[in-house]
Amino acid sequence: MRLYSVLFACLVLVAVVFAGPVAGPALAQSATAGSSSDQTSPIQIILQENRRLIEISSRRTIGPAIAAVATSGLPQARSVLERWQDRALYLRKSDGRFFFAEVSGAGGERLIDIATGADAGPATQQELEQLRPNSGVRALIGAALVPFQLTDPDPAVRSGALDAIARDAAPGHLEALRGAIATETDPGLRARKERLERLLTIAYAPDPADRIAAIESFAGDLGVDVRAALNPLVATTRAVTPGAPPGDENIARRLSPGSDALPAAEAYRLLVKAGLARPRISAADKRNALAAHIENGTVAGLPVAGLDSDEARDRAYAALADQGLVPPTATEAEVQAALDAHVFYDRYAEPDPSVTAAAEAALDAIAFKVGLNQAVNLSLDALSLASIYFLAAIGLAITFGVMGVINMAHGEFIMMGAYTGYVVQQIVPDYTLSILIALPLAFAVTFAAGVAMERLVIRWLYNRPLETLLATFGISVALQQLARNIFGTQARPLTSPAWLDGALHLNDVVSISYIRIAIFVLALLFLALFLFIMRRTRLGLEIRAVTQNPRMAASMGIDPDRINMLTFGLGSGIAGVAGVAIGLYAKVTSELGQDYIVQSFMTVVVGGVGNIWGTLLGATLIGFLQKGIEWLNPSNTLAAQTYMILFIILFIQVRPRGIIALRGRAAGD
To answer: Are 250 and 106 part of one and the same domain?
Structure first.
């Protein structure tokens, strides 16, 4: 029995001795795993495999490391990229393992397991190396995070991811975007994802059929992003080859040297750049080189007197080149021979001809639609300008048409209205309320100024047009100087309410500012108000009677003198309201009225003196004419004004009484 016990003890001892080297590491590994569960986690392994690239952290070399994490499919990939981007990823120097870290209360760092998020114990700053990616690396990490953000529960995050892709798309975003479309619940974001997916399909899809289908889906689309995606497909580079172009190149067109598309000099420069021909010097440089080597009346043994042709000078220069005295150059004959021996052509950057054909067809359809929308946009600009001219001219049409008074101070009533709006805004800070107060107040101020001007000056000058013109011109100068004395020479802002900021964008081509829309609506309101006054009120009836026949109106008990006063005040008041509207669009200065007085007179004369419908048509004609001339000659607005005045002069020669002639006193009856 004792023998058996001894034998058993020996066997145990042998087993322990031989099992120690095996069991020891296993036990150590088990203990280590218990203390740090991520040592063999897949995300830790990926970081370890790319440790050298991560430590270097160079924008040129970090790509594979970021891609390895982003494409791993691991649930921890996003958090690792986000912490890395935020500079919260650390490397422990002792064992080269990666952790997240947070500042602990003891002044050191608290390590966090990157696989489980569990507390991995404390560490001092000396034990850790903080990974600090520069802005370029952080941008690459941000791009890698986009696919994760496309499926984020927060719509704002998904929208930001779409913005990031639109700014800096990459081939890898296409599949991520396709996968994120099916799970998108927001209709707006889904539409954006689908549009962006088609744009990325054009650029990165491997199947030409998919690219062509995406291109054709954008035919006629006015988005700038579409043109940005299609234009690279039809971009060309110029090339030259000694023989036929390679069969695998997508050739846009062949070029003939010496044509408008390819001048001979440019063609030869292509040959020289490609190393297919010798460079040539200019004729002047050649003559200078020959002159510098004249010896005893000869150049390279050729008499100077014989160098009277290009061929002779070429021979002399070639002889100098053979002697190593000048750099060699191509002769005219060599240049022509080189041009004849080579094929010049433009080739597409896109190698697939079917893709470029689809892109060109889509761009042609887009160009046609863009042209139509540009015409619409130009028409909207012309209408808004016409509404401004109509507002500025409607008061002048009343005074000029009814009273026959050429009021050169009409522009200053516009200026007074604009300054009234400015003063009101200094008192009432609410811009919406201040504008609502300024409109009737500007009418009252300029109405009173107009009545005073008519009572003090105009009434004494009826039927004396030259004296009236000079008197109102003097009043115009005086009012301008008075405005300078009160408000100074600096432009004063008349601020529009916040709801008038920005513009109405119908698409990427057509847009119109809300201020112009408001002025257009105001012009329509004043048209309706004026028609109501003239057609539905006693004042309007009396104005029409005095306009048509003042003597007959007086015999019917109407006071023409009173009607003239009220008419002049009404016209001046409307000019004041126009000043408030124009002040929202232009800076308020003492010269504001002078910018519109010429157009106002042209509007009234072209439309027909004293006729509201004629004024409307005249403003429309002048607005469209000015915008059309500016579109044809956009670099010179002064020329546009000159051409417009010449057109008005010719128009008056054909219709001296305007588009709609008025019967009565204003028409000379």
So the answer is: no
Distances (CA, A) of 122 to 28, 31, 57, 103: 21, 18, 26, 10
Establish if 496 belongs to a structural domain: yes
User: Are 556 and 562 within 8 A, CB to CB?
Assistant: no
Tens digit of each residue's pLDDT (9 = 90 or more) over 126-147: 888 888 898 888 888 888 888 8
**Length reported for the chain:** 669
Cβ neighbors of 238 (< 8 A, separation 6 or more) are: 255, 262, 270, 344, 345, 346
Whole domain around residue 63: which residue ranges?
Answer: 41-136
Run of H or E residues at 302:
strand 302-303
How far is Cα of residue 350 from the mean position of the Cα atoms in its chain? 27
In sequence order, what are the residues at sequence separation of 6 or more whose Cβ sits closer than 8 angstroms to the Cβ of residue 497? 431, 432, 435
Write down the residue that tokens 């157009």 correspond to.
599
CATH of the domain at 485: 1.10.3470
**Does the pLDDT value for residue 417 go beyond 90?**
yes
**pLDDT mean over 343-347:** 91
Residue from 562, 529, 527, 522 nearest 543 by CA: 562
At 413 the pLDDT is 93
pLDDT at site 106? 58
Rounded to an integer, the average pLDDT of 288-302 is 81
521 versus 396: which is more confidently predicted?
Answer: 521
pLDDT tens by residue, 533-563: 888 888 888 888 887 777 888 888 888 888 8
122, 50 in Cβ contact below 8 A?
no
The structure tokens listed for 77 are: 């990939």
142 within some domain: no
Please classify residue 94 by burial: count the beta carbons closer than 10 Å to its beta carbon, then call 0-12 exposed, 13-18 middle and 19+ buried: exposed
Shared domain for 261 and 196, answered yes or no, is: no
Instruction: Specify if 354 maps to a domain.
Output: no
Could you give the dihedral angle defined by the CA atoms of residues 347, 348, 353 and 355, in that order, rounded to the nearest 10 degrees? Answer: -170
Quote the pTM value. Answer: 0.67
- pLDDT for residue 30 is more than 70: no
Tokens found for residue 488: 């100074």
Assigned domain for 368 exists: no
